Amino acid sequence: MPLSAKDVDRFGAFAPRLEAIAYRLLGSASEAEDAVQDTFLRWQAADVDRIEVPEAWLTKVLTNLCLNQLSSARVRRETYVGQWLPEPLLAGDPMLGPAGTAEQRESVSYAVLVLMERLSPNERAVYVLREAFEYPHREIAEILDLTEAASQQIFHRARKHVADGKARTEVDEAAARRIVEEFLAAATTGRTEPLVRLLTEDAIAIGDGGGKVPARAKAFEGALAVATFMRGLFKPSEAKRALVGGSPQIHLATANGAPAVVAVLEGRVVGVLCLEITTEGIAAFRTQVNPDKLERASRQWAATGHGEPLSTGF
Questions:
Q1: Mind listing the pLDDT tens digit for each residue in 111-169?
Q2: Are both 58 and 126 inside the same structural domain?
Q3: Up-side HSE of residue 277: CA atoms within 13 Å toward CB?
Q4: Per-residue pLDDT tens over the stretch 281-314
Q5: What's the domain range around 306?
Q6: CATH code for the domain of 20
Q7: I need a surface site. Which of 84, 119, 131, 160 has the fewest CB within 10 A?
Q8: Do 191 and 45 have their domain in common?
Q9: Are residues 138 and 263 in the same domain?
């Protein structure tokens, strides 16, 4: 039986929340969109008049679809070319979801999305539902077919895993933005020493090109190695311009709630550099240049206003 307009609207009211859950679970905007579409197909096939609590039903269906996706993703990523990194989302993207609490903002940060890759699918689901969306353990247990006690145990274990992997205390947004501006100024001088001073001793740099754009899969480790790499990355060269098809504009922007560097060429985002900034300095650079993971960022960039570029890079 076809859905009524009312039932389609009921799903539409929950869709943004479902997308935000799926993105945190999968680390991929395109896969999150697919999961929500599959959830709609199941809603379409269900006897919706018999569903007492639509939000709970939809969340359960979506979460289990994502759990299946996570299990198969682990196998696919074994053959992924280079390092797999999450898909960054620029400021204003509704898929970022709720940001009313520090826990909600942190749960969608790029650094935490990377850390969540270490969790089991069940750990990730419990962590996301509890930390980011404040579901009570009773409801999480029903969604995942667990006991309430098991949900609590899994959450504490997942939270500890994430906490253990996190860098030192992060700085506030204004200070982080100043550090990124200093980094860009230093990176374009062609000198290594100013960059080293901005980094933690154990800083890392890693990139995801998906086999489509050259990106070093093995991380650069240590302040000097990372500074040398960053100096070279921002040094203009004909080879780099040929690779991306021109000389991109470099903007200071926000990705996943934190300051980031965005490279834009003819209105298209060609790279997002996510920085992990702590009180001790910049602890990590994670660069997304896989074009498949920048399509949504390009759409968001085109749909929103942004200031003048800080420089023309590469």
A1: 999 999 999 999 999 999 999 999 999 999 999 999 999 999 999 999 999 998 876 66
A2: yes
A3: 22
A4: 999 999 999 999 999 999 999 998 888 888 776 6
A5: 173-312
A6: 1.20.140.160
A7: 160
A8: no
A9: no
Residue 241 and residue 140 in one domain: no
CA 126, 127, 128, 129 torsion-angle sign? positive
Q: Helix 54-77 crosses helix 29-45 at what angle (to 10 degrees)?
A: 140
- Pull the structure tokens for residue 58: 């939809």
**Comparing C-alpha atoms, which of 57, 49, 47 is closest to residue 18?**
57
- Tell me the whole-structure pTM to 2 decimals: 0.93
Best CA proximity match to 162, nearest among 195, 116, 208: 116
Contact (CB, 8 A) for 274 and 88 = yes
CATH number for position 177 = 3.10.450.50
Pairs from 185-189 (Cβ < 8 Å, separation ≥ 24): 187/230, 187/231, 187/233, 187/234, 188/234, 188/311, 188/313
Q: Is 82 helix (H, G, I), strand (E, B) or coil?
A: coil
Alpha-carbon gap, residue 168 to 269, rounded angstroms = 30
